[in-house]
Amino acid sequence: MAFRNRDRKDFNAGVMYIVIGAFFALWAKNYPMGSAVRMGPAYFPTVLGWMLAGLGAILFFRSFFAHSEEPPTKTHWRPLVAILGAASLFGVLIGPAGLVAASATMMIVGAFGGWDFRWKEQIINSVVMTATCTGIFYYGLGLPFKLFPWS
Amino acid sequence: MDFSQLIPHLTLGFTVALAGQNLLYCFIGCLLGTLIGVLPGIGPVATIAMLLPITFNLPPTPALIMLAGIYYGASYGGSTTAILVNLPGESSSVVTCIDGYQMGKQGRAGPALAIAAIGSFFAGTVGTILIALFGPPLAELAFEFGAAEYFSMMVLGLIAAVVLASGSLIKAIGMILIGLLGGIVGTDVNSGIARYSFGVSELSDGIGFVSVAMGMFGFGEIIANLGQTSESRHVEVSKVHSLMPTKEDIRMSIGPIMRGTAIGVVFGILPGAHTVIASFSSYTLEKKLAKDPTRFGKGAIEGVAGPESANNAAAQTCFIPLLTLGIPTGAVMALMVGAMTIQGIAPGPQVMTQKPDLFWGMIASMWIGNGMLVILNLPLIGMWVQFLKIPYRLLFPGILLFIAIGAFSINNSPFEVYMAVLFGYFGYYASKWGCEAAPLILGFVLGPLMEENLRRAMLISRGDPSVFFTRPISLGMLLVAFALLAMIMAPKFRKKREILHDADA
User: Fold this and answer.
1) Rounded to the nearest 5°, which phi and psi values hold at B303?
2) DSSP state of B330
3) What distances in angstroms separate CA B361 from CA B46, B355, B356, B357, B358, one per listed residue?
4) What would the pLDDT profile of B201-254 be if each residue is shown by its tens digit?
5) Which of B10, B68, B209, B456 has the largest CB neighbor count within 10 A?
6) How many other CB atoms are there within 10 angstroms of residue A70's CB atom?
7) B171: which chain A residues are within 8 Å (Cβ-Cβ)?
8) Is A88 close to B421, i.e. CB distance below 8 A?
């Protein structure tokens, strides 16, 4: 078996489909299945889950025989961690610290995902965008935000 | 078709659409849509997901009018970017890049933009008239539909969406299934059981697919853009000298605009990647019809006029299945369903009879919005050019902030932000492995609807699945779905689809 030559994209996607499909189908055992006439809450996810796992299995096995295509691109850790980390930080901060602090922090952390980070311009950018968004969403659209930690 | 009702309907529509507030929101929508759409690397789906929260506090009619405006604005903005910097903002303006950017390099960016605007406006007008003409009879037909027909129609819609989508068929169907499964997370309407909620109270309300779209398209696109090296994102903006097309330009564009509109109108109604296919088909047709096909790729104005008209006509008519049947045919329309649901409107044929002011107001505003775009895009082109010059390293943190605030405001809870982050991760890896996000979004919206109609159809037929094959309309739709699947297996078609995919990438 030419494991090294397998189509990595198909292989990974296949494993993902099998895991997700089997999970949904097996977890559905916690719910009543019902019958074809009166379908219970488990019916639809069980059928779809196994269909998904089946497709995953096809991809999985096919990946060993396919001419190895170009491998998937390497993970871009820097933007991935910076962008999603910044967004998570926003979620953590918005409750206790309010919109202004959460936005400003997120802009700076997120900016680290870019290629050339310069403190000066990103701080200005962060202040300007925070002010703009506060203006649009809080004052303009009247969305119920807490602005500051003390408000 | 009942033409006698058309005039009173349109009068009602224009009365609604021209009411001060609605006109203003239509304008704001077009402006914001263009503004975000012009930014390279942000497609219409991400734009709409990002701007959706600003409509939450509005009443339904202005909210939907504004969203429709955002959608055309974003599509339009993508064309501007394609012509000026050779970076398509979305897949449907990929073809516009080919000849549009060449025209720009020859100093003819102005005429290219003007022709694109004129063609789009013409196409938009035709599209709007068609919606007004065909909407009511189609909605009448939809009232005859039972659960079996709805189920089969959704099967057809999903199959068509993957057949026309790029990439691997198996992977696309897989993404649909994941979407359908994700869509049914939450409290089951029949039994009241909270499925797959794992005791998390937010999950028992279901996964909001707006945050899914924000994560997969918004965060995903930013990460993908940043993953490219800085050189490949170096932006060189073509100069715009004069907007006026020459007489020769106009003469050469009339034919392509007409043909492009006709192609777009047809592809728009069909489910799937309508705008992309429409613009590609139009480009291919114009190249075949041209006396001198070698001009294409070197700045032929027909290569801008045709695809841009086709693109916009399709963007218009893809509202027909949504407004009359309540079935979204793509990721953008899926977001419109979400917006309608948030506003408390169940999309479907009943919207037209129960809320005629909303239905006709929206149609009238589509035409007005298309007109506004011409005004927005031509005289204000200088402003968009300036906007294009902002370096991406300053743009993306702002976009990120917009998405985060948007996700938070869905329920006023950080939970949706975390969901968007989760789907950002998922979407990033999925697209790396060749699995696209668009089919998943469509599945997400259709999941609960499909399950409900399947259950109802089986209940009525007492568990006999042949109900889907004995009712003629249902059978017809399943046969078309089957034919589409068979077609995609055919080697000849497969090759064509791959070419399209390569051009798309």
Assistant:
1) -70, -10
2) S
3) 25, 10, 8, 5, 5
4) 888 888 888 888 888 888 888 888 887 755 445 556 677 767 777 888 888 888
5) B209
6) 8
7) 13, 59
8) yes
